[in-house]
């Protein structure tokens, strides 16, 4: 497979996964903002910090202004992580590889791109249709994943697409989890009610699973375990890394890159940090550093993938 094609497959799925994560967080926050009294941290601040690169002064200005925050998150072309920007980049990648993706995948990406560029969208987001509009994009994002899963052939292209998906999912989970644990200053001993973690768990589609799985009252430790170490939760860090491992093996079997051993070692160290972490050793003194170390290691691994397979200089 040409490196250009592999690159586009990889990044199409990364951009679509980032859009999916952003939409989940936006939808959750929009709904919970109707009940601000539940949690003093409910504003748009953390969403803007994760999914935009604007200055702190502008974030403070926007954090309680839903209409303006939605524009920045969804439609502002100057925001590299807005829905409009992400779908534009995903469509550009997909357009160049139409022979390597199914017609259904292309049509879904193209359809979402035209929907986010519809002239009437801003009016919908500023009126009573805002919730329905955001929810529609969330459903379309889920549909993209379903269409991709049911129509793409299981070859090398599929492996590159899923490498992109799970690397990006891992980044999003780390960023979201880090942000919510910063609200309690990473102090796991300062016990919080489950309502403290409901926004985070809902944003990661894990609240229902949490209620069914975790019966003890240690909500801080339970929330941390689910989003980082629960191998059965599809958006946990460990699950994302385990799926990355699967598709990395598939890619390396068909590509004898000179960096093969370096890739295996670097990813092995990253996976081991999570898989063999003594969770009881995490506390206020090291939890923030743990998240930052995971983010840095994942970034280095992702860069090595680019250098090895996509001819990045």
Structure description:
The structure is a single chain. The protein has 313 residues and is mainly alpha-helical. Helix content is 70%, strand content 0%. It has 15 helices and no strands. The protein has helices at residues 3-32, 45-51, 56-62, 66-75, 83-95, 103-116, 121-125, 130-151, 156-182, 194-203, 207-213, 219-229, 237-254, 260-275, 287-309. Helix 9 runs antiparallel to helix 13 and helix 13 runs antiparallel to helix 14. The protein starts with a helix and ends with a helix.
| Overall average residue pLDDT | 94
The largest sheet is: none
Structural class: mainly alpha
Instruction: Give the low-pLDDT segments.
Output: none
Gyration radius (Cα, Å) is: 20 Å
Number of helices: 15
Alpha-carbon distance between the termini? 19 Å
Question: What overall geometry do the principal axes of the alpha carbons give?
Answer: globular
**What is the count of distinct domains?**
2
Total beta-strand segments: 0
Approximately what portion of the residues adopt beta-strand conformation?
under 5%
| Helix amount | over 70%
Order of helices and strands: HHHHHHHHHHHHHHH
């Amino acid at each position: 497979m040409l490196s250009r094609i592999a690159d586009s497959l990889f990044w199409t799925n990364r951009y679509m996964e980032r859009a999916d994560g952003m939409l989940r967080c936006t939808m959750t926050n929009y709904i919970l903002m109707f009940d601000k009294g539940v949690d003093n941290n409910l504003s748009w601040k953390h969403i803007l910090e994760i999914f935009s690169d604007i200055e702190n002064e502008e974030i403070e200005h926007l954090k309680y202004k839903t209409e303006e925050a939605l524009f920045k998150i969804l439609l502002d072309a100057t925001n590299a992580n807005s829905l409009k920007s992400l779908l534009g980049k995903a469509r550009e990648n997909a357009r160049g590889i139409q022979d390597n993706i199914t017609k259904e995948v292309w049509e879904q990406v193209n359809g979402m791109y035209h929907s986010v560029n519809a002239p009437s969208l801003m009016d919908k987001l500023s009126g009573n249709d805002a919730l329905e509009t955001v929810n529609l994009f969330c459903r379309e994002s889920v549909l993209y994943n379903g269409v991709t899963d049911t129509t793409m052939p299981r070859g090398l292209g599929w492996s590159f697409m899923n490498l992109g998906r799970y690397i990006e999912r891992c980044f999003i989970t780390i960023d979201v989890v880090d942000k919510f644990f910063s609200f309690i200053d990473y102090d796991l001993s300062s016990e919080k009610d489950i309502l403290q973690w409901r926004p985070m768990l809902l944003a990661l589609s894990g609240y229902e699973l949490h209620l069914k799985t975790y019966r003890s009252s240690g909500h801080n430790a339970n929330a941390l375990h689910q989003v980082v170490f629960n191998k059965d939760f599809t958006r946990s860090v460990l699950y994302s890394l385990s799926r990355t491992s699967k598709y990395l093996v598939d890619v390396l079997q068909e590509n004898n890159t000179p960096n093969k051993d370096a890739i295996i070692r670097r990813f092995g160290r990253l996976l081991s940090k999570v898989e063999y972490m003594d969770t009881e050793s995490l506390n206020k003194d090291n939890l923030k550093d743990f998240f930052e170390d995971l983010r840095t290691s994942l970034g280095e691994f992702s860069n090595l993938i680019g250098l090895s397979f996509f001819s990045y200089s």
